[in-house]
Write a structure and sequence with these properties.
The complex is a heterodimer. By secondary structure, chain A is mainly α. Chain A is built from 15 helices and 2 strands. The termini of chain A are far apart.
């Protein structure tokens, strides 16, 4: 009995000594790299204050009632319960968000990849540069999407109505952004118009950086057409860019709101273009129900991060 | 020489058929029209006099171009609120400092993440990649509280500083820096160069394509920032905010809206044209290969 306790204590002290030794080694390693930490200090400070801490605080606030004037009151799961069981608009928002994300996300991603790939095949440098600019321009032009308001304006002077009426397909102007049948399809077109964005440039850069000798080796190994070339050589060689593009696409397709609000109004007719972000903006910046809005933000956070993780796991399989 | 050309042509033929080429040109033209025509329409509309904006059937191109819409926005805004040039100044100021700050701070942080093996490296990088996966909407509420605590509400800082902390640029920079050959850095270290010197003279010059990409992304975010959550004073408000105010007036300001939209898009497009040729050039000449 006595010896057992003794050996246990001895064991414990061995364990403590081991931890101490490890900690000492890590500490020494950290000291040796103090320049590295110095390099990262400014960014990490800003990152903590403006991203990391707010993300955590938002989760905490989601369990409270908070109207900015009084200090937050703890209400447990109440906000979440209300969101799912008492807030019909939120359920519409979820439906719309997934509708937009599932349609525009994958289409936008593959369109960007496909077009970058075709542009990369163009031999003439100037035409290649021009095409890159042409496809990237809608994304970079910011609020230029406002022009769609004039293409689909609800009078006879808008392009869509004007031409439909001239061709005799309709007899009166369609109310594009007021009629529930049209709102979502038109907005999907606008979102796709802007979806080349961030991933696209990364794809262009990735494609240009693929080592040419890989292709020569590929022809030796019997690669015959451009699709085999794409799948076995090009895509595996640009995996980092593919991952980056996917992350950017997923994050932005769950965050669609600005274009919708500018074109279809905020709130839109019968909440047809109301997304989760719209709901968040509504409660956070208009009604100042910060606790409730934080619950929406937390759910958005979980959906974004989870779908990113799933897609990344899928992308690791590229070229295998 | 002739032999090399011939070989190249044969190789190109081997995997790329004529039909495939024709098909891809066709797709590029159709999609290119979809992308380009709305922007062209915005430019045409901004030059149209009132009577051409409201005709039936609508006409795409402008017959009698006029600068009246551009003239209008300066007059219109100067009478009712602050001078229009003030919005331009605000946006230029915020964009310039935010982008430069982001480039510097993110590159500084990316270098050790890409090239040093220190404890905590994976944790920090994991945090940054996770941060990439959610949009700024998620942190909007606590950010508002942070800004009010710092006393930055109604101040340029509330727009500039958070942009510096955006994870996207850092992530990109780190990815690109990993491709800088270790042997280059090692050689400089043996020569007795300090880490800051290595960063400034070896790493940064060899990742030029990455900084241009990073500048474009950061610029694009800031240039389009409305910032109306944090900024209350009219004289600190941004150009995108002014555009949203003008276009909110609806159809009566169709020409003015198009004019502001053109001003908004011309700057980023010009910068992109300048940066893009540079990217292609640096990619060709400095292609990093181990």
């Amino acid at each position: 009995m006595d010896s057992k306790i003794q050996s246990k204590e001895k064991n414990k002290s061995v364990y403590v000594r081991y931890i101490k030794k490890r900690a000492g080694l890590v500490w020494k390693d950290m000291k040796r790299h103090k320049v590295s930490y110095l390099f990262m200090l400014p960014y990490c400070l800003l990152f903590t204050v403006f991203i990391l801490a707010p993300a955590l605080v938002s989760m905490g606030l989601s369990f409270t009632y908070f109207n900015v004037l009084e200090s937050p009151k703890f209400v447990g799961w109440q906000n979440y319960v209300n969101l799912f069981f008492a807030d019909e608009v939120f359920l519409t928002a979820i439906k719309n968000t997934f509708l937009f994300a599932i349609i525009t996300g994958p289409i936008g991603y593959f369109m960007a990849l496909f077009i970058a790939w075709m542009i990369n095949d163009i031999k003439n440098k100037k035409i290649r540069a021009f095409m890159t600019l042409l496809f990237y321009a809608p994304t970079i032009s910011g609020q230029a999407y406002i022009v769609w308001k004039y293409i689909f304006s609800s009078d006879a002077y808008g392009f869509a109505n004007g031409w439909l009426m001239k061709l005799g397909l309709t007899y009166q102007a369609n109310l594009w952004f007021e009629d529930q049948r049209f709102i979502v399809p038109i907005l999907i077109i606008v979102v796709l118009w802007m979806s080349m964005g961030t991933g696209f440039l990364s794809f262009i850069a990735g494609l240009q950086n693929v080592d040419q000798s890989l292709y020569e080796a590929g022809y030796m190994d019997g690669i015959r057409n451009r699709f085999q070339e794409l799948w076995y050589i090009t895509l595996p060689a640009m995996k980092p860019q593919l991952m980056f593009g996917a992350v950017m696409t997923i994050t932005s397709s769950f965050a669609i709101h600005d274009q919708l609000a500018a074109l279809a109004g905020f709130p839109s007719v019968n909440y047809a273009a109301h997304t989760v972000v719209s709901h968040l903006v509504d409660y956070g910046s208009i009604r100042f129900e910060m606790g409730y809005a934080s619950a929406i933000a937390t759910l958005l956070f979980i959906v974004m991060v989870l779908s990113n993780k799933v897609i990344q796991a899928l992308l690791r399989k590229v070229g295998q | 020489m002739a032999m090399a050309l011939f070989k190249h042509r044969r190789r190109a033929k081997q995997s790329h058929s004529m039909v495939g080429n024709a098909f891809s040109i066709f797709i590029l033209i159709v999609m290119g029209a979809f992308m380009g025509l709305p922007l062209l329409l915005a430019i045409c509309n901004s030059l149209k006099p009132l009577e051409e904006l409201f005709i039936f059937p609508p006409r795409f191109f402008v017959r009698n171009p006029t600068g009246k819409n551009f003239h209008d926005i300066f007059v219109l805004m100067s009478e009712s609120w602050v001078p229009f040039s003030r919005y331009i100044f605000n946006t230029v100021f915020i964009t310039l400092f935010g982008t430069l700050g982001h480039l510097l701070v993110a590159s500084l942080c990316a270098y050790p993440l890409a090239k040093h093996k220190f404890p905590g490296r994976n944790l920090i990088f994991w945090l940054i990649v996770t941060a990439l996966m959610f949009s700024t909407h998620v942190t909007a509420i606590p950010n508002y509280l942070v800004m009010s605590r710092l006393g930055w509400l109604d101040n340029y800082l509330s727009l500039i500083v958070p942009a510096i902390a955006k994870p996207m640029g850092l992530f990109l920079m780190k990815q690109f820096m990993e491709q800088v050959p270790d042997s280059l850095i090692e050689a400089a270290r043996i020569d007795g160069a300090s880490e800051f010197r290595i960063f400034g003279t070896i790493v940064m010059p060899s990742v030029k394509p990455a900084w241009l990409t990073l500048i474009i992304f950061c610029f694009q975010d800031l240039w389009n920032l409305q910032g109306s959550n944090y900024i209350y004073s009219e004289n600190l408000k941004t150009l995108p905010y002014a555009l949203s105010q003008i276009s909110a007036a609806g159809i009566s300001r169709a020409g003015a809206t198009a004019a502001v939209a053109v001003i908004m898009m011309i700057v980023p497009i010009t910068i992109f044209i300048l940066c893009q040729s540079n990217i292609i050039e640096t990619m060709v000449s400095s292609g990093i290969k181990e």
